[in-house]
Protein 1
Amino acid sequence: MQKTVLVIGASRGLGLGLAKQFSSEGWQVIATVRNSQQADALDQIPRVSLETLDMTDAASVDALAKRLEGTQLDVLFVNAGVAGPQDKPATQATEAEVGQLFFTNAVAPLRLAERLRPAVNPERGVIVFMSSILGSVETGPGMGMSLYGASKAALNHMTRTFVSELGETGLTVLSMHPGWVKTDMGGDQAPLDIETSTRGMVEQVTRAVGHGGHLYLDYQGEPLPW
Ligand SMILES: NC(=O)c1ccc[n+]([C@@H]2O[C@H](COP(=O)([O-])OP(=O)(O)OC[C@H]3O[C@@H](n4cnc5c(N)ncnc54)[C@H](OP(=O)(O)O)[C@@H]3O)[C@@H](O)[C@H]2O)c1
């Protein structure tokens, strides 16, 4: 039976790559963009349907949840995220920058997952949150981008709370590190291309089906320290 994935934040970078990779493996893909004018690349991919969503806007999330009523998702992949004020330490970033970073990377993904959870197959579904190795409290500090890393650590923390409150379920939850990848966010120096990272992530998601619980993994399936 054909499987369905919802990729949040698929206009470019890893989200667009995930839409391509899932599609090439025969999945039905629902891909979200903030601006429907930025969907040219997605329009070229077979089996992709488009939705408009700003993950930080509660009304937008609610409207998407209503449009998805009656659709069962095998995978919800919450990929969207921002880098924030990259080169500023916590002492220099403005309150607005910090608020936007933590709301987008840590709070909005969990609110969205709570709202869309009824659409995810409760027996064999997978919910993936795009984390980062920089969010590991053990290994992230000292690797740079400390505020961004802290926002992903907050995402990991909130994801563990989300999982602890799931109760009896067949759902599997992944906190995923895509590797350091050449995208607008990852920059030109990154060693990995989008295709290598997304092929690996889709493989890990496929393997996780039916596993249950919560795993923090990289795109190659290596478990990461919290
Ligand atoms: N690249 C790396 O090396 C790397 C490493 C570790 C983790 N990550 C994580 O991987 C994810 C994707 O990163 P990327 O490198 O592909 O970044 P990117 O090229 O900057 O793309 C970010 C994507 O997120 C979307 N987005 C941002 N804010 C959103 C919002 N409020 N609502 C909906 N969509 C939103 C963007 O949409 P617009 O086009 O509308 O802005 C875009 O599609 C992020 O969570 C990032 O933190 C990346």
Protein 2
Amino acid sequence: MSRYCLLYPHDVPNSIWLMHHRGPTGKLEVRPEYQQLCCPVCKKIEERKALSLGLPNDVHIKLKTDLFSSNESLYIVSARLRSLLERIEPVEMSFFPFPDDERYYAALPNVVYPAVQGDPAFRMFRQCAQCGRWREVVWGTMPPPMDRECQIGMFQLEKPLGIMSIWVVTDCVASSLKNYRPRLKGLFFDEFFAPRLFSPETPVGPNKGGPNKGPNKGHKGDIL
Ligand SMILES: [Zn+2]
């Protein structure tokens, strides 16, 4: 099995909102165009569908890094990083353009490793009775399972505002990004614990170590 790294940006102050905005009263709310994708109970949005609908045209990006996170914890990549990620075969990423800014794209890996209920790799809190999503999913005490290999993929954790994507890349992809010149800005890598290659026939057994090296991803912004 390949060795993997976590790829993440550092938190930046005054980042942008993609699917939320401040309403007339100053309260954080889901933008009207995404309301139809919003669960009436937990208020979570179907993020991938929302991004496919199109990004808002009133978002102004003042940052100059190649990778940063929106306030919802969705990652934004520069056009330069996009073109590098698109060269990785097979291309396993989806990119969503900003209508008025060709410099940046929202990005999501297509290979998603969902949290598995009952797996000690995850701790899950408060499942929504309406849509079935969890209010919060965080790392547990074991390395998480991966049911297939990939060049770039994401674990899908949850926070109250929506998904918290944790990107993983192979060591090979990490080295090519690190070695690219001129140097990419805003990319951080952490050595990743060895994930468990999981199949339904493989019983979950004790495993050494734990996913304790992940980026510190506290909750950002308001909780709806
Ligand atoms: Zn819900």
